[in-house]
Write a structure and sequence with these properties.
14% of the residues lie in helices and 49% in strands. It is mostly beta strands. It has one domain: Immunoglobulin-like, CATH 2.60.40. The strands form 2 sheets. It has a 6-stranded antiparallel sheet, with no helix packed on it. The chain has a 5-stranded mixed sheet with strand order 6-2-3-11-10, with no helix packed on it. Strand 10 and strand 11 (152-159) form a beta hairpin.
Length: 161
């Protein structure tokens, strides 16, 4: 009887760890920058296709909770982290951001970018960060930088050689 109880407990635990190990992906590239901030919002995500790269621009404004500057272009960038894995999935974390006008999916017509999706739910319930997942069509390299006046984060997705 004890061996049956042990097996009933151990087998599901074994399957859980097996599933966890097989679904994890190796990170290919991490790009991050900016600085710690708060009270920011993403007002738009723009994409552009060029011969050797695609560009995604995250436009930054002050959050509606900032009554004096709500909706105005930000002078702050916030912290950003882009993590690309071997399945061509790019995980995006934007820290210091309270909201976004992008509700779920961004319409994409690009040869390198398959989709941009806002992640929501309890696991992404941090009220000072926004999370996106970007599915790329093929392997690529990333170049990330930010610009001021108006504030924006720029992501270039470059053809993998």
């Amino acid at each position: 009887m004890a061996s049956i109880k042990r097996m009933l407990f151990t087998y599901p635990l074994f399957l859980f760890f097996l599933f966890t190990i097989t679904t994890q992906c190796d990170t290919i590239q991490v790009a991050e920058g900016g600085s710690i901030s708060d009270g920011l919002s993403i007002s738009a995500i723009r994409t552009g296709t060029h011969p050797t790269y695609s560009r995604i621009v995250f436009d930054i404004v002050y959050w509606r909770g900032n009554k004096e500057n709500a909706g105005k272009p930000s002078k702050d960038i916030g912290h950003y982290r882009f993590t690309l894995n071997e399945k061509n999935i790019l995980n995006v974390e934007l820290s210091g951001f309270r909201s976004t006008s992008i509700k779920s999916m961004v319409d994409i017509h690009d040869t390198r970018i398959k989709s941009i999706r806002l992640l929501t739910g309890e696991e992404y319930g941090d009220d000072s960060s926004i999370f996106y997942t970007i599915q790329l069509r093929n392997r690529a390299k990333l170049k990330v930088f930010h610009l001021y006046n108006p504030a924006r984060i720029v992501l270039d997705i470059i053809n993998h050689q």
